[in-house]
Each structure stands twice: as C-alpha cells, then as structure tokens.
User: Fold this.
Amino acid sequence: MKRIWGYIVIATLFFVLIWVWTLKVDSSLNYPEFVSGGALFFIIFFLCLFNIRKRVPFLPLWPAHKWFLLHTVAGFLALSLFWLHAGVMWPNGLYVQILAFLFYLTTLSGIVGLVMEKVYPNLLTRIGLECIYERIPRDIAEIRNKAEALILECTEKTGSDTLAKHYLETLGWFFQRPRFFLNNIFGGQNAQTWVLQQCSILERFLNAAERDYLDQICALAETKRKIDFHYSLQKMLKNWLLIHVPLAAAVITMVVWHLIVIQVFFN
Amino acid sequence: MDENKFDHDKSPYERPNFPFRCGRGALWRTPCNSGPKVDGSCGGTRDCTPFFKGNRWLCRREKCYGGPCEEGPSPTGECSWQRPPCAPRKTLRAIRGQISFLVVAAIVALLLISQASNPTGAGFVNISDAGPLSKSHKKFTEIEGCASCHAAYGKGPVGWIKAVFTPVDISERCVNCHSFDGPDSIAHNNDLAIDREVRKTECIMCHREHSGQKMSTRQSTSEQCNTCHKNKFESFSKGHPEFPEKYPYFNRNAIKFDHGSHLKKHFENPKFTEKAPSSCTGCHQVTLSDREVRPQAFETICVNCHGSQIKKKDLVLIRLPEFMQNFVDKEALIQACNSPAEEKTEDEFLSVSTEMPALVSTFLLNVPEDDPETYEQPLQELIQAMTEESMLPIEDLVNSQTETPMADKLLTGLNPEVLKRAACSWGLNLEYEPPAEAKFGGWYADMLEVRYKPTGHRDPVAKSWVEFALTVSTVQDDEDKADRAKAMREEIISVKEGVGSCVKCHAVSETTLADGKKKLEIEWQYKEVNDRPHSQYSHTSHIEIMGNKSSCSNCHILDGKAEYMASFKGFDATKWSSNFSSIKRKTCIQCHTESQINQDCQSCHIYHLNPGFKKKMVSAKRQMPEIKK
Assistant:
C-alpha cells in the first residue's frame, strides 16, 4: 500500500512538473503542446514496456507486481496528460477523434482490468484451492475420470444403478467441462446451490453403501465447482487483455500517425 | 486434491507462452504429455520417445506422468502407448498477438486507403483531417482545400517525406491574404525594440485553427507580454507604467472649442443659458462613440450662437485705392463701357478713393499695398482689362498662383456684369453705386470694393479662399511676394476679419510633406486620433456601465489653468495645452483591479499594426465561383 502511494506521489509530481512547464512555455508564446505531447508519448512508451517486460521474465527487471503498479499509475498519468495535451475532453478532427476514442477505450479496458485484478485474486484465495489455469482441463478430466470410476464401482459392488442413472442424467453434465461461467464471474453461488441440490436430492433413495459413494462423488463435485470458479475468474483475468492489448496497439499506431501528420504539416 | 501436486515429479511445467496448446485439453480431455509441436501439429500420439541402452529399448515417460510404463517399448523401439492425433488450438497469447496485428493492419490499411483514394480529402473520409476550420477561413479554402495552408498536402508520400525534413513557416501562407502596416514576422508588425534583438514571430503562436467555427486566438496575459517587453510588470494595477504626461490629449484639436470658457463662462451667462447643453452628451454623440466621442455637427450644436457670425465677415477681392495719376486709356474705357466722355484734364486728377488696395489684389499683382506710385499703374491696367474682359484678367491672375488652377473654386458665382460695371465706374474715377444691398451672400460690388459674403457654414468659396491663402503663403520663392502672400493669409485667416471667421473655430496646422517641404492645412473636419494604432478604448462600454450623465467627468477633469486658446496661435499642432487634465493610471485602477474588472493587456492594447486584407483577397472573394452543393 505504501508503495503505490509512493508511485502516485511521483506521478503527481511528474504531472505538476509538465503542467508548470507547459504554462511556462505558453507564457513565452511557444507551443506547450510539444511539451505535453512529448511527456505523453514518453508515458505511453513506458506503458508499452510492461508488455515487453512480461515477455522477458528471465531478466532481472524488477518483479512483475511492481511493474503492474507502475503501469496502473502511469495509465492514470497518461489520461491526465492526454487532457492536458488536447486541452479538451473530445478533440476536433476525425483522426484525432479516432485517436481519442481508442485512447479512452484502452483506458476504460485498463480500468476494468484493474478492478478485476484487485477483486478476483481475493475471491480466488477465499475459495481455498490453488489452480493453474493451463492445467484446468487436465484437472477436470482427472476429476471426471475419478467420478466415473466411482460410479462403476458403486454399480458393481451394490448392484444398484440409481446413482449411475442420476450421474448420467445430471452430474455427468456438470463434470463434462467448466460450468456456471457467467454466475461465477459475478461472484454468484448458483454452482454451489446446484451441487448441493443434486447431492441431497438423491440421498433418500440410496442405501448406506451407495451413500458412501454419493459422498465421494459430491466431494469431487465440490472440488470441480471450485476449479470452475478458478476457471471463470482466471479466464476473465487473462481474456481482458484480448481487448486491452489490441486497443493499446491501435493507440500506438494512431500516435505514430499523429506524429507523422505533425511532422509533415507542422514542421 | 493432493497438496503436493505441484512438485516437480508430480506436475508438468506449463508453457502458456507457446503458440499452441493440446487439442484434447481444449475439449476438456486429459492433455497428452508432449503437447503440440512448434508448427502446430500434434506431438502427443505417443506417451514417450524410448531410448536404446545396452541391448534393449527403455521407456522414458516422465515421473509426473506416471514414470516408465509396465508394457515398455516394443522391440523396434516404439512406445506402446499410442493414441490418435489431436487438433491443437492456439494459446491465448497467440490469439492476442493475432488480434493486435489485425487491428494495427486495419488501421494502417484505413490510413493508406484514405490517402491513396483521394488526397484532397473530398468525397472520402479524410484521416488526416485535424478538425473543422473557422467560419472565416472555411470559405476561402473551399477550392484549394488543405493545400491553402499546408504545402505538403496532396503531394503524396515523397512530398510528405520532403516536408518532414524541410522546415515550413506556415505563417508565410497567412500573409498571402492578411496584411499589416509593417513587417509580418516582427512583434507588433513594428520595429519597436530597436535596441535589442527579439525573436521572429509566427501567426500560430497565437492563432490556432481546426478548433471549430470560431478561430482560437490566444488572449495574451501580462506574463506572455513580459517575455519580450523590457518593462516587466505583474498586471495593469500592479506595476503598469504610468500613462504619458499628456495622455490622452496628445494631439491638438481640429476644432478650437474652449471647454473652459464655454462651460464656466458662456453657458452660465443668462443670455445663453437656454441655448447651452445640459451635459457633455448635449454636444458629444454618445450613441456612435468608440475610441472617440465625436461632437455633433455645427448645424446642430453651434449654429444657435455662432451661425450669424459667419455671414458678417466678407472677403475683399479688389478695392479701388488712392491713385496719384491716371493711367487709364479713356477712349478705350468709354468704348468698353459704352459711356459718355467726361471733360477732365490730367492736371485735374483727384483720386476718388483714399483707401489702400485690398491685400488679395496686391498679392495677385505682386505690388506693395502702401506705395501708390508702384501699384497704381498695374492696378489701373487691371481695372482697364476688367472693363473689357470682366473677370478674365482676375481669373488668369488667380490661376497663375498655384500649380492647379483654383479660379473655378475661388471665383464661383462672380457675376461678370457686376464686375464690369464696377470696373467702368472706377476707370472713370467714380464710386460704384450698387442697385441694392447684398443681403443673401455671394459676390457683390459696393462703392470701392468687390467683396464676397459667405452664405453660411461650409461656404465653398470662403473655404477655397482660406485654402488658397494657406497654400500660396508657403510656396513663394520671391521674398516680397512671400511677404504679400503672408499678409493676405493673415487677413483671410484672421479670427476677427477673416472671411467667414473660419479660423475662429478651425485650427490651422503645419504638416511636413514627403519631400520635406512644409505645408499649412486648415482642419475642416473633426480629426480622429489614429497615431496610436496599438491602443484601443471603448467609450461606449464605459458609458454603458457608468451612465451618460456624469460619467464623462469621472475621467475628463477641466484644467482651469490651461492656456487652451493660446495653443492655436501658432501652426505647430504638437505644442498645445488641453482643456482637460491628463488622465492618470490611478483613475483606471479604480475599476480595473484584480477583484473587479478584467485588466488583460488586450483590453487596451492591439497586438497587430492596422491589420487588414490584401487586395487580391478581396478580388478573390468577388470571383469566388459557386460551390456545388
């Protein structure tokens, strides 16, 4: 917490410095846009460095969480510098409007990502299970195999197919792949309710031996529910970059075009 | 779940940065141990790649996948665990890279297509459009488009690359249409800082385009002005230099109106009280005021008291003076005048007049007015000529005095019959007896004189005689004639005796011509001050706030000690004392302070020197073709 305040103070000082500099330049009848634009370009370049940093994890270039904090603070700084540079919230001219639109979208997607980065990890920790996103298919397959093996064993040993039929009609759907995605990303409890319901609904129709198997299957379903939760939230944490990064690339492209236009027409 | 499942011997190493992932995993099946190959093909048809050691093949399946299998490799060295190949899928990172590439490619394509399809930007989305132009510039750039200001526009990629390495001063394009009374790229269009170097200015320092309907113009602050100005100060109320000593009464008035005597003496005289205005606005036209609050016309505000005075002051063109001898050819005179001869001998000649000749005629004939022996012959010859040709000899004399003939203006309305009759009488050494008194003004002859009576204010003949007198008095080479011209001028511009008493109110000032010669001019019109082009003041807005009754005296305070009328005795307009005390900065600061009314530099100062448009701009506007809608 102390660290982020330090970064915020540095960013604020940087902004004030640039602001005072633009005022100074403005008062000398020069072009303050060059100062604010230069600073904005520098900050945008710094924001891009985070993506590059993630591609070279083997280099000792500060830990990623520090980069993330800096990226967050620099993002807000870029927004402030953008307003200082443009002088208005919504500029005139098609290409600058496209640039502004893309910049705002990138900032918005960044803010959404930041909110998720702050909320989701806590929810994931609270669920009491650690899970690697890329390994979730293997984990689900493993749970499913175990559940199906238990069902077969139950049928063989008890001679009853009640549990097997129930599995085929309801639980099989659940163990097939991650479920309740939308409900999970909003922190809903539908999956838990559904699992409890499916486990309790059958209990009175089973004998003692079958109940043991049902308990084991329900334990597997509970684990699967937690993995599903991990899957949903981690998928969001990873997939929002599918919006943020391409938008950032588009902003960079338009910034380059902006620089070309300025150089050609304002040289 | 196993707590130690991430141990190195229990958990494989995941590589999300690889471009592909196992297709079985994507279908929520157990992914294979090997994963896809770099080219995207399945690499997991076998569990392991056995190796040959000693004389047999050994299983190499990793411990995290269960370790060496019980079956072991076949005798040919093939893994015994085989499965059909999957269809690997792209990883998130690869998808992200692809989307980013597509987005960038789409934007680049949009930029290129928009530039390539129509570089003028018309008819297609102009991706380099920086925003709408101001209303004033939009019209003039309709035909040429962006190229009106941007040289590189529409010149293709090569032109653009050249433009990057060729600095362009966009201000050069501005002055294609805009003009100033001084250098374009020097501050204030005026070489004011002659003692030091100041940087070159550019139009875009203050004027910005592409900001919408209205041109964005920088409001200069004190701080901005301070960057160039030697005399630096914080604001008008804090540190602004005191106004000049005579501010704002630098120039002598064109009309001699002594506010002191009128307000304190004449308007308080019971004889004139009824005619006197009740306040300053009784004479000054507030409704049309700006920098100046012009007085109303003579016919509106002065005529009640001064209207009758003009007609009382005549001009004497010719006066029959005292002659010692008679040089008139009597026979010719009798023939010209068609009158009977008189029986008088030369010895008996006694001049009917004892007067001196008129100064106008002595100047025209270039003779001394006080020496009858010198003037009598030329003057009698003139009279003799007048008996024969009436006004023609005078017309010739008048026209010979100036480069541009002025007789048609000076002698307008002069009746040849009257002139001839007077000349005939004078040639016979008789007084001319007019048939009736000249009541209504104009030329007339009376006893010994030919006179002109002004018809009223703005009388064109009287005005022309004043101008004639002023002109000829400064162009004479001959000393004697110059003295006679000055004598005539002094009579004509005399406040008491001059024709129409024009100079009682109208100031006469000396000006220097381009060739260095001096010239005297009478100021017929109210003269606006235009020698301070970098300053502005709006009386209207001040009067609107303070009211039009007493607001004038807040700033304009009568100076009782000023010798106002004495300032008009000479012709030097720079030496004068105003009726009013000079206005001090403290007067303005009463309102223009930080907490009250704005005190921006541009409230009172104009940056440019007489800004305007070039002639071609106006003609271009006239020839502007209709734009197709």
